[in-house]
User: Which sequence fits this backbone?
């Protein structure tokens, strides 16, 4: 129970990678705030399901609704978590969307939606959460980037820009927070099994898998294990880093 007594806030935690991270942090002993956005009716039910799963593990969790693009909503979410548990030790910026299309077909809205959720969301959540961490002189900020933010990808210029921005943001904030014993790192997953990959044609999945030396797509739990390590005391001398987890596809 390495994270016993810690409080974590995980954005976009109702499903996929975020859900796996929330469950892992709870397994390690942290109390977990499960963030979701009420765009789809199912999101609240999914978030409540994660909270229930954590309760069955013997942990403590709460669901908190907020659109991470909205400064007021993010502040209210952080205050709600702080009011209930008195602090925030660990922030995982996981909330993200994609609106893939070629640049010449990309609308202003497709660009703004992706940058708003993926990059502005990480900025706002970090800005408000680190205030708790600085006061207590201990904290972990872990943002989910992507290998696409390192190498780019056709049809994903907005997504790649947002994930590359997270990398630059991470390195900068790490320099600001180091003197307060707050580490700031990014995780860059490769091809991970999610609802999005489940919808791909079999031949596309096979092509993706053929690029990976380990010969399989990653699982959300693979990413969660890395986040769990970065959240603990054993990672206390790691900051400003971008750790790729892609089975060796993009060395």
Assistant:
């Amino acid at each position: 129970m390495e994270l016993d007594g810690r409080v974590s806030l995980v954005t976009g935690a109702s499903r996929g990678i975020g859900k796996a991270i929330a469950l892992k942090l709870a397994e390690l002993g942290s109390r977990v705030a499960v963030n979701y956005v009420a765009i789809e009716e199912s999101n609240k039910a999914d978030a409540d399901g994660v909270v229930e799963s954590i309760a069955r593990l013997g942990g403590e969790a709460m669901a908190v609704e907020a659109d991470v693009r909205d400064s007021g909503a993010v502040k209210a979410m952080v205050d709600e978590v702080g009011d209930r548990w008195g602090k925030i030790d660990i922030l995982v910026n996981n909330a993200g969307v994609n609106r893939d299309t070629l640049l010449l077909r990309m609308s202003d809205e497709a660009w703004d939606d992706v940058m708003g959720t993926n990059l502005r969301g990480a900025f706002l959540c970090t800005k408000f959460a680190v205030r708790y961490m600085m006061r207590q002189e201990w904290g972990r900020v872990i943002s989910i980037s992507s290998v696409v933010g390192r190498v780019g990808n056709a049809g994903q210029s907005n997504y790649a820009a947002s994930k590359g921005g997270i990398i630059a943001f991470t390195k900068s904030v790490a320099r600001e927070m180091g003197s307060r014993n707050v580490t700031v790192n990014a995780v860059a997953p490769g091809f991970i099994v999610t609802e999005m990959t489940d919808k791909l044609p079999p031949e596309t999945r096979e092509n993706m898998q053929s690029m990976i030396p380990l010969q399989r797509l990653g699982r959300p739990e693979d990413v969660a294990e890395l986040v769990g390590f970065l959240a603990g005391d054993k990672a206390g001398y790691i900051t400003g880093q971008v750790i790729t987890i892609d089975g060796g596809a993009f060395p």
User: Anything to note?
Assistant: The chain has a mean pLDDT of 96.
